[in-house]
Amino acid sequence: MAAAAYPLALSLLLLTGLSFAADFRQGWVPEVGTLVDCTLVEDAVGKGSSPGSVIQTDTLLLLREVSNRKVKGDPSSERDLPAEVKSAVLLNVFDDSRVIAHPSFRQPRGVRPKPRCEINRYTPQEAAVPWGSQLTKEEKTPAYQSRLWFSTYLQSPDRTFSVTSLHRVLSGPRGEEDAAPYQTSVVLNVFTRTSVVRARLGQDVVLDCGFTLDRTTGFGVEWRYQFQGSGHLVYAYHGPQDRVYAAQEGTELFLDRLHSRGNASLLMRRVDVRSKGTYICTLYISNFQIQQAITLEILEPPKLVLKPDPLYLSPSEAQNILCEVANYYPLDVTVTWTRRIPGNSSAELLPNSWQSGHQQNSDGTFNLTSGITVTPTMADHGTVYTCHVDHVSLKGGVRRSLTLKVAGVSWPSFEEVVGMLICAYFLHGILKLLHYWLLPEGKCLMVGQGWA
To answer: Quick check: 10 pLDDT over 90?
Structure first.
């Protein structure tokens, strides 16, 4: 399979199925770390492999919650690992920062949905951009001597935390029959707590990106935009030179927190519809680079207006009722109409509505008009017509209603009769009070007659 390209021991440990591991993984969470199901993804090599085809193989990551320099239980002896794990396809991962062992990855075994996890082999290479080069005085890999490297990507089930990590291999199997796990140490983490950001037009947004290094070294930061196959540079910073190479208008980094806290987040002011897309935060250290992708979505809810309002019609008079849906983004919007006839507790769907095409405004938002035609009779007096609009920016949608009044209807509704009776009752009481308070008993005042 890949034996010609990789050592046979690597193929045995990383490209072998884990059917024997299914039993012990149910309901077991190791005390020394977090065990995560993962997928090794690599290019297919060999006879019959088509260009671009890949091989995906199940593996395990044991994410240690302790520093690799302060391990409780010698990891080389593996005496703190269950026997089943010792024989599994396993990467035993240590991280000084403990970022990779984030609490969001801790779940009882067998619970779904599970964290997303992918692992790839990594080859060090020089950066092709000026903010990713000359990051150390020696201009070479800073004391990271290792024959094998891996990169991993983990994302929590609720997508609230993602981390990409670069691993150097400390030790591994020494032969074909050696089933020892790979011991790896995390050199660089790049993480985000906002894999997806949703914003309205004109808002300021922060695309979260943080990083940790296992030692002090120079670094560079790059933010790049991608959307539908095209992209451009948004921001570029070279740490040792403290130099900003590029900064798109309306964007900035928190440079005071960049060096002290590893905060590489990007501030974007007054976003518009052209801001939507994928933003890639890349961290460079000498001969290495890893990244996180954050998706920015622009969601602008629609505004509704019904016309004519109020709705007064004569019997048999045809009239279009319009629902103007304005200033929404993105395009996906659904408009439906219902009517509720007096005396009915539920509304009925009106199938014969019509709708205009989408019209785009100067700010990138859209408008459309939907309508129905009504020709009322006397019996339609009091019918309620409602325009319902569903849009991705709204939970439960939004609606507006009009009540039809038919001219010439002389009889009041039950509700109107009750209201008039209540008003008459109170008016009668007020008049009686005025009669007793203002007029003395036994006297009558005739205005304009001159006598009492």
So the answer is: no
pLDDT, tens digit, 9 for 90 and up, residues 221-275: 999 999 988 899 999 999 999 999 999 999 999 999 999 999 999 999 999 999 9
127: Cβ contacts below 8 Å, ≥ 6 apart: 133, 220, 284, 287, 289
Is the separation of the CB atoms in 223 and 234 below 8 Å?
Answer: yes
- Mean local confidence (pLDDT), 390-396: 93
Do residue 226 and residue 104 come from a single domain? yes
Residue pair 277/175 in contact by the 8 Å Cβ criterion:
no
Same domain, 155 and 55: yes
Q: Is 431 a domain residue?
A: no
Identify the residue whose tokens are 């019609």: 313
In a domain, 125, yes or no: yes
Q: What pTM does this model have?
A: 0.76
Domains in the chain: how many in total? Answer: 2
CA 83 to CA 93: how far, in whole Å?
18
- pLDDT over 50 at 7, yes or no: no
Q: Write the pLDDT tens digit of every residue in 178-203.
A: 667 788 999 999 999 999 999 999 99
Co-location of 225 and 345 in the same domain? no
Q: For residues 175 and 314, state if they share a domain.
A: no
CATH number of the structural domain spanning residue 85: 2.60.40.10
Strand, helix or coil at 236?
strand
Domain membership flag for residue 440:
no
Instruction: Identify whether 391 is part of a domain.
Output: yes
Residue 38 near residue 115 (C-beta atoms within 8 A): no
Judged against a pLDDT cut of 70, whether residue 9 lies above it is answered with no
Type of residue numbered 125? Q
Domain of residue 18: give its range.
8-298
Residue 202, burial from CB neighbour count under 10 angstroms (0-12, 13-18, 19+): exposed
Phi, psi dihedrals of residue 137, rounded to the nearest 5°: -65, -35
Structure tokens at 335: 């408009």
